[in-house]
Fold each of these.
Amino acid sequence: MSAALPEEPRPSPARGRPNDPAALAEVRRLIETSALSYRAIAKVTGVPRTTISRHVLEGGWIRPKGADAPPQSAEGERRMRRGLLAERVLRAAEDLVQRVELDPTATPAAFARAVRVLALAQRLDRPGNARSRVSRAQRVRVR
């Protein structure tokens, strides 16, 4: 799904002059069908990045899924998955508390347990929280 880059980039039009409609059509095609960055699309088409950005916003052009996210390292992907997991755990804990609150037969112990689960999930989701039991000093030594 990658677009072939031409040998030489097209020159951008003089400042203040409108872009070629064919070039803008090519920009739209690349925006909506490829994962190329704005910078790469600007090199291919000769349309400035700022113009591309403006047309994307004004025209409502939609990027393919994952096109706006830069490729991540294995550690970055792990952190992203961990963050998504924390969100799911937090939602599940909130649902549990809500179910216990709405259940007329729930005991105080069940409610207390649901609140403890929610507190643990919130602690897991806290920004900047080291989600590992290994201390920072231990992690630094291992590397």
Note: Residues 74-102 form the longest helix (29 residues).
Amino acid sequence: MGPVEFIVLAFPEEQLRVQAVDSLVGVRRSRAVRMVDALVVTRTAAGEVVAAELDAFEELAGVLVGEGVERLIGPEDVKEAADLLDLGSCALVVLIEHLWAEEAAKGVRAAGGHVAGSVRIPPERLEEVRAALAARTETVRVVREEG
């Protein structure tokens, strides 16, 4: 099995829109990841936390299909996701397996290596890096034009 990741995708309304799931379905179809489990978690305007399987929503029924679909997201995970939500919002909570990494790991092991560590870079940090690269690119362009 490849690395498994717990992801909370938050949305500003209590109702999850179908478009929110479309990109995940596309990634699943590419076979880069396997959606192991998914839930919709809502924190109502009154603060109540409600969790539901995707199949509870007519428009989302069948999104989690295929071999290996498990019900692994538990009450502690729902609480953790709900703690990240504002009142009157919801989240798509997804447990995915990185299939691409499993294939890469097999090759590394066959060569006598092993995965010694893994760190997920927060999106905020990636934005900082992109901004720095854009500024550097702009500086190089200006220097070339002046030179």
Note: The helical segments are 19-30, 75-83, 99-110, 123-146.
